[in-house]
Amino acid sequence: MQRTTRFFVVPGLGSSGPGHWQTYFERLNPDFTRIEQREWDTPDKDEWVATIERALAGEDLAHVVLIAHSLGCAAVAHWAAAHGHRLKGALLVAPVDVETAHFAAFPTTGFGPMPMRQLPFPSTVVASTTDEWVTLARARQFAAAWGSGLVDVGPAGHLNTASGHGDWPAGLALLQAWR
């Protein structure tokens, strides 16, 4: 019997609203589940990491793919560093650079510095040349450190609703490799 791949959505700061591609992916497929954080607007890294760990408890991790956006990518990197679980894979979209002054203006706790060691599972970083939260050069550094593939989508902003990425079919196509 073939196991179904389970997809867990890991939103960033503020969660992903009704028009966000992560929400669209969830509505499209019953195998997509959002990892709900208690606090979306003033997140604490340790709490977010613990919530990811609890959400995945009891899952067959060999059949789990994480789909993270923005600060959710940092949470996944911290979770992997803390727990070292092997997954089927992770799609890490528009990772925020938690070490910039721009990010420091937001009320978050403990997300910096960004873990810069290889993830214990296959992963792909998706980055834009015009993302206000991370430069393409820094996204390349993340991908190299994490052992991730890198997809440069060109001038696409932060790959969220505000940058015109509502249903984002190209993102859904990237997940097909892990089906």
Protein traits:
6 strands, 6 helices, 179 residues, Rossmann fold, globular, alpha/beta, 31% helix, 6-stranded parallel sheet
Question: What does it look like?
Answer:
The protein is 31% helix and 16% strand. It has 179 residues and is of the alpha/beta class. The chain has a single domain, classed as Alpha/Beta hydrolase fold, catalytic domain (Rossmann fold). It has a six-stranded parallel beta sheet with strand order 2-1-3-4-5-6, sandwiched between helices. Helix 4 (101-104) links the parallel strand 4 (89-93) and strand 5. Helix 2 (45-56) crosses helix 3 (71-83). The protein is globular and about 45 Å long. The protein starts with 5 loop residues before the first strand and ends with a helix. The relative contact order is 0.17.
Q: Could you give the order of the helices and strands? A: EHEHEHEHEHEH
- What is the name of the CATH architecture? 3-Layer(aba) Sandwich
* Strand coverage percent: 15-25%
- Overall structural class, as computed from helix and strand content, comes to alpha/beta
Would you tell me the overall average pLDDT?
Answer: 95
As a whole number of angstroms, the C-alpha radius of gyration is 15 Å
CATH fold description: Rossmann fold
State the end-to-end CA separation. Answer: 15 Å
Quick one: CATH superfamily? Alpha/Beta hydrolase fold, catalytic domain
As residue ranges, the low-confidence spans are: none
- Using the coordinates above, name the CATH class: Alpha Beta
In DSSP terms, counting alpha (H) and pi (I) runs of 4 or more, how many helices? Answer: 6
The portion of residues assigned to helices is 25-40%
